[in-house]
Specification:
By secondary structure, the chain is an alpha+beta fold. Among the domains are: 6-29 and 253-295, no CATH class; 97-173, no CATH class; 425-578, Histidine kinase-like ATPase, C-terminal domain (Heat Shock Protein 90, 2-Layer Sandwich), CATH 3.30.565.10. The protein has helices at residues 6-31, 33-59, 65-77, 181-195, 203-207, 249-299, 314-384, 391-419, 432-441, 444-449, 470-487, 519-522, 546-556; strands at residues 80-84, 90-91, 97-101, 106-110, 130-137, 144-151, 162-172, 212-217, 224-232, 240-247, 428-431, 453-457, 465-468, 493-502, 505-513, 561-565, 569-578. Strands 11, 12, 13, 14, 15, 16 and 17 form a seven-stranded mixed β-sheet that branches. A five-stranded antiparallel β-sheet has the order 2-1-10-9-8, with helices on both faces. The protein has a five-stranded mixed β-barrel with strand order 3-4-6-5-7. A hairpin with a 6-residue loop joins strand 5 and strand 6 (144-151). Helix 1 (6-31) runs antiparallel to helix 6. It is rod-shaped, with a radius of gyration of 64 Å.
Length: 586
């Protein structure tokens, strides 16, 4: 893993962030949690005291409802509560009680704050349980009992006490109290002894409706308590106050335990932070690494192997854009390479054309200079009257050279039309055998002078019909026959073979007996003024443009053509498209 990679950076940043947050949480808990807890608890008690005041107003100073309201308030908020009179004296109200149905009557057992410990009350008590209580009746009707002991066996009844046995029908006992509720409730008397002498100075503040807030510490246990006093609605004709005393010990213990807990949990959190940071950094950086590799391949013009990130977030969108970019760049580069190849071919073609142009000018100059020199020489001789007896011969030579120059100029004009794409074919149905025989008749004198024999082989077919321009194909046959006769050995055979070489394709081969053509010359025979004879011997005849004209005509017909060396000599061939039918060219 590289030092400056994204994975390392994300890992370090994430680890530091988690550890910083963890440290801040520990610091905040140590410095602010206790204060926050106290403030939150006091605000909660203030709201609950307002609700109690409203319930007190609705119930009035009812001897049956008030204890239940007070007991429920104490259980729900883990506080000690008392009702004070106008002199801030404590009004005796027993919030906790039990109702036992005896054989003759119901008996209410008051759970007093004095003389009874919480552990003396049976645990998990519920309605319908059988209960035996020893105590003292508090009224004349023997319906209210002050309990002394709850019997679980058959203990003997002590002197001066009465025993009540029955089923529990109703009860309200201390629940969800974090400390000994009876001890804590008993501290109210001690608190009032210290606070009551100076309570008058807070009377006006209490009448405003806002709870009075104070703190008090138990000298014996050292526990700090929050004291709240609130004025209650006047429903009895006298002032009444709700006195609430809440222990603040649980928050202090909780903070200390948390500090010890963090000492043990810190190494585990550190390890967990490192592991989670590593996993998170790899998850986040993995698509970045893949994108980086894709970009590196693009930088090297490698457009293959682009992996797509299949997600719907920004990474996936960027990956798809990179793949699209690579495809577009690949296409553009291929088109550019193709355009470069085409441009290179065009440049080579222009170079070749330029070379051919220069060669053409040189060839034209050479081809015209010699006959012009001959004509000029014979004309000057006739003008000076030299060799008068040879006048007719000189004139015949002048006419002959003039005809050669005329043929050259006509071939050049014809070739220029083909190169300028000015020639348009007029294709039709052509009887190929008849056209070849007709063209061969025009060379009868040349063939007789060299004692040549023409053999036409159509492979048993009377006629071959092809789709072509008759005048242009006749020109092809004339040029190839002229070339074959010119280079054939005397007393030899010129063979013309017509056959079907492929479905729908007719091939014509014109072969003579003579010297073969060098391999390096076979492809250049179709160029302007190119002759296999390096000496450019004019005795062989021809303008040097016939084969170039053949090439252009066959390219317009989209037919194949070429030349091969054979065992007898040289064979030229060309291909045309066959037509089935009886119509033929005449």
């Amino acid at each position: 893993m590289r030092r400056h990679s994204v994975v390392v950076k994300l890992f370090v940043v994430t680890s530091v962030l988690i550890l910083a947050v963890f440290s801040l949480v520990m610091l905040a808990e140590g410095l602010f949690f206790e204060r926050f807890y106290r403030t939150s608890k006091i605000h909660t008690l203030e709201r609950s005291m307002n609700e109690f005041a409203e319930q007190y107003r609705q119930a009035g100073f009812n001897s049956q409802q008030l204890p239940r309201l007070l007991g429920s308030f104490m259980n729900n908020h883990d506080v000690s509560t008392s009702i004070l009179n106008e002199n801030f004296g404590r009004i005796p109200v027993n919030p906790y009680f039990l109702v036992v149905q005896t054989a003759s009557k119901p008996v209410t057992i008051l759970i007093s704050l004095e003389g009874l410990e919480g552990k003396a009350i049976p645990k998990d008590l519920k309605t319908g349980d059988q209960l035996v209580v020893d105590g003292i009746f508090m009224d004349e009707k023997d319906t209210v009992l002050h309990p002394i002991a709850f019997q679980t066996g058959n203990k003997q009844l002590e002197d001066g006490l009465v025993r009540v046995t029955g089923k529990v029908t109703d009860f309200l006992l201390p629940e969800r109290r974090s400390y000994n509720p009876f001890y804590q409730d008993g501290l109210i008397n001690q608190t009032l002894q210290e606070w009551a002498p100076q309570a008058d100075q807070y009377r006006s503040e209490l009448q405003s409706g806002k709870p009075l807030q104070m703190t008090w510490s138990d000298n014996w246990s050292g526990i700090e308590y929050a004291i709240l006093v609130k004025a209650l609605p006047n429903v009895t004709g006298g002032e009444r106050y709700l006195f609430v005393m809440a222990s603040l010990q649980p928050v202090g213990e909780a903070v200390e335990i948390l500090k010890q807990y963090f000492i043990y949990i810190a190494p585990l959190i550190l390890i967990l932070a490192v592991i989670l940071s590593l996993i998170y950094s790899r998850i986040v950086s993995r698509p970045l690494v893949m994108l980086s590799r894709s970009a590196a391949r693009l930088a090297k013009l490698n457009f293959t192997g682009q992996h797509e990130i299949r997600s719907k977030d920004e990474f996936g969108e960027l990956s798809r854009n990179l793949i699209s970019l690579s495809q577009n760049l690949d296409t553009a580069l291929k088109e550019l390479k193709q355009a470069n190849v085409t441009l290179q071919e065009d440049i080579e073609e222009k170079k070749k054309s330029e070379e051919l142009r220069k060669e053409l000018i040189a060839n034209i100059s050479h081809e015209l200079k010699t006959p012009l020199g001959i004509v000029k020489g014979f004309a000057e001789g006739l003008q000076d009257g030299i060799a008068g007896d040879k006048k007719d011969r000189y004139l015949a030579l002048i006419v002959h050279e003039t005809d050669r120059m005329n043929d050259l100029i006509m071939d050049m004009l014809e070739l220029s039309k083909f190169e300028a794409k000015a020639v348009r074919l007029q294709p039709g149905t052509l009887a190929l055998v008849s056209l070849i025989r007709k063209a061969a008749d025009s060379f009868s004198r040349q063939m007789e002078s060299k004692q040549l024999v023409l053999e036409v082989n159509s492979h048993g077919e009377g006629e071959w019909f092809v789709h072509a321009d008759p005048r242009r194909i006749e020109q092809v046959v004339l040029n190839l026959l002229s070339n074959a006769i010119r280079h054939a050995m005397e007393n030899s055979i010129i063979g013309i073979e017509i056959s079907r070489t492929a479905p729908g394709q007719i091939t014509t081969v014109i072969e003579n007996s003579g010297s073969p053509i060098a391999e390096e010359d076979l492809t250049r025979l179709w160029d302007h003024f190119y002759r296999a004879e390096r000496s450019r011997d004019r005795k062989s005849g021809g303008t040097g443009l016939g084969l170039a004209i053949v090439k252009h005509i066959m390219e317009l017909h989209a037919g194949g053509f070429g030349v091969n060396n054979t065992e007898r000599g040289v064979a030229f061939y060309f291909n045309l498209t066959e037509i089935k039918g009886d119509n033929h060219y005449e």
